[in-house]
Amino acid sequence: MLDARTWLAVYLKGLAMGTADAVPGVSGGTIALIVGIYERLIAALTAIDPGRIRRVLAGIRPANLPDARAAFLEADGPFLLVLGAGIATAVVAVLSAVDVLLSTAPVVTFGFFFGLIAASAVVLYASVDLSTRGRKGAAVAGFLAAFLTSGYAATGLGNALPVVFVAGAIAVSAMILPGISGSLLLIVLGQYDYMSGTLREFIDGLMTVVAGGGTAGLLEAGPPVVVFITGAFVGLFTVAHAVRRAIAAYRMATLAFLVSLIVGALRAPIVEVSIRLADNGETWGEALPRFALAALVGAVAVLVLDRYAGTIDY
Length: 314
Prior knowledge:
By secondary structure, this protein is mainly α. Helices cover 80% and strands 0% of the residues. It is built from 16 helices and no strands. Helix 9 packs across helix 12 (216-236). The relative contact order is 0.16. The mean pLDDT is 84.
């Protein structure tokens, strides 16, 4: 039986992963590598299958409780629960803070994101070999996928529940992959701003209910949050596993595609800022200095992390 200090360490590592995935740039998977839990995380996630899920759910009957407990431990359930609690805590806290920043200082916030994304691309491309035609093709495909989607998604996809479901499924796949941040994919899909605001409204509504107030706010923000989480669970057992298999079969070409997504995604913060500048009657000439300064701060943060984290082996 592990002691409380060990579980606290796992929780704190979850906090670090959740913080990384809540802002576009370094991914939670990268943090998992840095803090030494990546292999355990992948082993635990891939140990979850329909059979073990059924055995755990059957534990509601007392006679099945020993087998349910065994299935839970086989999938390293305690580790996933504590780590997940840390990730969830960080995501809620960071996205709530980001929602405020996007409302009060969108140019600076997206400038910071731009720097995080750009520096992450520079760092990760050092580990990608583009020596073959197939890998170069994969890199071009990844760049175009993110670049073209970034331009359309910000204005064209909207925030319908099916879109939110797909966004959750895609974003969660990034959480277990070194390099790609789930929040970066949300920006590409035009859902980052919306989901950060919706999550903040959901938390505010939940606190209102706890304080004895009405449920209107919770009911309004609840459906998108529930649909997003549902999509995330589906993605965890579909998209994420498919990407892991792709890495196993075509490791370098898949990584070339994923890292090139980051480069193409550099368009996303620029599109978002352009929309806000147009709404506020401001020009890029006026906004560029603070955008560039924030980008520099974001880039330095990633480069410092890379400097002290050392080389990441995919």
